[in-house]
């Protein structure tokens, strides 16, 4: 079945009908993005939110020193965009680009609002999406007070699928630590696994 | 008019009828909380989200050294609680308590879901609340890479009403900086105002 059909049903209490889904789908625009191509550039208004069918994307902003700071990472079945700019209509302070070649479904704010009124399953999905997104960002805010080790551990537990899709410097930036610190954390973790493999009797 | 009535209308595209509002209100439980009284304690499941009619509250977690880390601050017309625990039903890692004597309206997750189905205005309010909450947490994540000065500046711009409701050590914790750093930022800001008052001709 269509990934968006599966996604809506996952978060809706009732199965969406074929007719309703066709209506939902007709509100989206299909687009391909080549690696490094922007969905959104700093200073633009985020006109579209993207449901990712294929590929990986990232949202980041440039700090005062011109360093890229990762804000969000996304893979298939995730939504990418800048919610503030999308909702309020203000220019975005973020960039969203394709980390891999992507296929996405784009929706405007107006179309999304119309569907939330006309399609109960889509509305439920939107509510759950808001909740899930809030939960995820809340976790990130909380993790700021964690050590680098604990931060990485939580990241791997929550998002194991990110580990092989993004390189270390992107993950380090997402976690708000330096690449060297992440390197140390990973070395320490590898050592720990080696010791665990040897077993307590052998030490 | 009732604060919750005004709140729903603020975020709904159509005015809620008196009848619908009475139905909404009947799903809430009124409660008074004395200063320092908990709405939620670490380890409990968050059964209720609270709409604050009066007073100020805070959400925090205890770090590994037993230090309180502010996660959210709330005043009148804000919602307090732990969304993850409320939605997923898992024990909370947060404490939510009254910073001032409070009056709140409590709602369960089931009642909220029922109202989202039965009352279009309440549903719209919920969607907007999810958006606003996401926007706010997104801003906080972004601000992590800011200097202490810029972090405080954004805080005052976005939440001027928090400045007189919470003491410096609570605001410092919310911003993820030490009390001494905040003190320095404030001194610097005061000096700047003094220089601005003197005017460029006098220097």
How is this structure best summarized?
Chain A has about 200 residues and is an alpha+beta fold.
Rg of chain A, please?
19 Å
Number of strands of chain A: 8
What structural category do the secondary elements of chain A indicate?
A: alpha+beta
- Spans of chain A of at least 5 consecutive residues whose pLDDT stays below 50 are 199-203
**Mind telling me the CATH class of the largest domain in chain A?**
Mainly Beta
Identify the CATH homologous superfamily of the largest domain in chain A. Jelly Rolls
The residue-averaged pLDDT of chain A reads 91
**Helical content class of chain A:** 40-55%
CATH architecture label name of the largest domain in chain A: Sandwich
- The percentage of residues in β strands of chain A lies in 15-25%
From the N-terminal CA to the C-terminal CA of chain A, the straight-line distance is: 53 Å
Give the spatial strand order of the biggest sheet of chain A. Answer: 1-8-3-6
Number of helices of chain A: 8
| Total domain count of chain A | 2
By CATH, the topology of the largest domain in chain A is Jelly Rolls
Largest interface: A-B, 35 and 35 residues
Order of helices and strands of chain A: HHEEEEEEHEEHHHHH
Biggest pleated-sheet summary of chain A: 4 strands, antiparallel
Domain Cyclic nucleotide-binding (chains A, B): 30-115
Protein name (chains A, B): Crp/Fnr family transcriptional regulator
InterPro entries (chains A, B): cNMP-bd_dom, cNMP-bd_dom_sf, RmlC-like_jellyroll
